[in-house]
Design goal:
The complex is a heterodimer. Chain A contains 2 helices and 13 strands. Chain A has one domain. Chain A is α+β, with helices and mostly antiparallel strands. The chains are: A alpha+beta, B alpha+beta.
Amino acid sequence: MFNNCRGIRAYILVAIVLAAGMRGWSADETVGSVKTLTGSPVVVRGQQTIPAALGMHLFEKDLLRTDAQSRVGFILRDGARVSLGPESELAVEKFVFEPGQGKLELLLRMIRGVAAFVSGKITQLSPASAVVETPVGMIGLRGTKFAAALAAR
Amino acid sequence: MRLAWIFAAAALLAMLPACRKNPVTRTPAPPKPESAVVLLKDDNGHVGRVRFENAGGSVELTGENTMTSISAADAAPAAPVAVSADEIARRFGAALEGLPAPQAEFTLYFDLGSDRLNAESEALLTAVLQAVQTRNSTDVSIIGHTDTTDSPQSNFALGLRRAEQVADVLRSRGLSPEFMTVESHGEGDLLVKTADGVKEPRNRRVEITVR
């Protein structure tokens, strides 16, 4: 479809401008932000591994990872809160929060470790749309506060 | 060879009564840790509901501090059991301690057709900025809304003007524009559901969320 990178970039730029225009200015794709932190957790974003920092914005597909000395907590734009204990890994697979359009979806993928959750507006407005996927099954969020620990494999 | 085994077995059997008299307590191998999900009371004292489901079956947690254990993706989750606060702290404490504070929400109201902040709203913005400070927030949403008087198009524009007006004041009072997201939902997200063309003061608002 595109014979060079610039073409793709231009296309994406147009798409972003159109999307921003429809939602008012400065609509970005932030899904949440890092709020609590101990040690040196990281965010894996595509091919990059970035040290997590307080206030850092998070995006769909971001994966958060902690080592034995680290913890990290974040808040999503629907008010949902998540925190990871040491040696844990969790990805924000999908986050759609457009209550005006009735578009609501939350999919967190917990890979290992221990995590605590407090659900937000997505769960409140559409309980069937919020899920935490784990290697041993799916947690359906009906609200509000719960925690999960995965056995070491 | 087999004979040797039989002798050994017989020797063990002979020792049994002695064993019974003076049992050697052998601690059983600790059970393989299983995965677990626990339902807790939230900050408002509310206990919700959580459903766990896999290829083996499903279970629903409805009681405070009830937990299900899961041994494998194809094994049914165990029936919920109540667990102690100590057990919860031991297994889940490391994650629970790091939960961030909840977001703060504010609503500012506007006069019919107006995008001007009134004195009451100005005062509320001080509380908004305080919430930003205490949370070290980098993510503040400002969403403008209108009632159903006028057309959807002009209401979208009015909602945006209201939100921008609020953002301007917050910016002038030191909040970085990078941390603000400004949007309009026009008349599409009514707080009080009304028919078209209805003047409803509670719908003429800007909602601010500080995360």
